Amino acid sequence: MRYTLILLNIFISIFFVACTTQKSLDEKMIKNTKSKSYVSKKSILGDKKVTVGYIEYVSLPAFNLTYKAKIDTGATTTSIHAFDIIEFEKDGKKWVKFKLDDTKGGLIEESLPVERVVHIKRHGVENQERYVVKMQLKLGKTTQIIDVSLTNRTKFKYPILIGKNYLHGHMIVDVSKKFLTSLDEK
C-alpha cells in the first residue's frame, strides 16, 4: 500500500510537469512566428486556409493546361510529368527543354531556366537526378509560382504531385475527400 501511494505521487508529479511543459511549448510556438516551424501564429489562431482533398484539379495557366493532381503532404517539392528532358545552355545558364502532354493527345514543348538539380533517393530502384524549374500553378483560388521538379510519371495515375512547397501556409488536406476546389474559382 505504501509503495502504491509513492508510485501514485510520482505519477501525478510527472503528469503535472508534462502538462505544464507542453503548455509552455505551445505558447513559445505561437510567439515564435519567424521560426522555420510549419505552424504559424495565424494557423493556430484560425487563419483562413483552403481545405483540399487528396485529389484536386490543378491548372498551369501559362500552358492553358489542367490536370488531375495528387496532394502529397510527404513530398517536399511539387513534381510534374515531363519527358524528353534535355539540358542546354542559354546565355551562360543551365536551361531544360521538355515536353508536356496537352491532355488531348498532343504535346507541348517548353524551355525554362533550371533553378537547381535535386537528387532523389528512391527505395528499391536507382536514385534519380531531377531538374527543378519555376512554374505557375493554380489550385482553387490559390495561384503560386513555385519550384517544380520535372520527372517521368507515366507509371503513376496522376501527372502532378502537389508537395509541401505549394501547400505550406495556404492549405489543409482532408484525405477522406477529393475535388473540394473548383476550376472556376477566381
What would the average pLDDT be, to the nearest integer? Answer: 82
Note the quaternary state here: single chain
CATH superfamily of the largest domain: Acid Proteases
The total count of strands amounts to 12
Largest sheet properties: 7 strands, mixed
The low-pLDDT segments are 20-45
Strand content: 35-45%
Q: How do the helices and strands follow one another from N- to C-terminus?
A: HHEEEEEEEEEEEHE
* CATH architecture identity of the largest domain: Beta Barrel
Percent range of helical residues: 10-25%
Give me the Rg, rounded: 23 Å
Explain this structure to me?
It comes from Halarcobacter ebronensis. This is Retropepsin-like aspartic endopeptidase domain-containing protein. This protein is α/β, with parallel strands linked by helices and 186 residues long. It has two domains: 2-44, no CATH class; 50-174, Cathepsin D, subunit A, domain 1, CATH 2.40.70.10. It is 20% helix and 42% strand. The chain is built from three helices and twelve strands; from the N terminus they run ααβββββββββββαβ. The protein has helices spanning 2-31, 41-44, 164-167, and strands spanning 50-53, 55-60, 65-71, 78-81, 83-90, 93-101, 107-113, 116-120, 128-139, 142-151, 160-162, 171-174. A seven-stranded mixed sheet has the order 2-3-11-4-10-9-8. The chain starts with a helix and ends in a 12-residue tail after the last strand. Mean pLDDT is 82; it is low at 20-45.
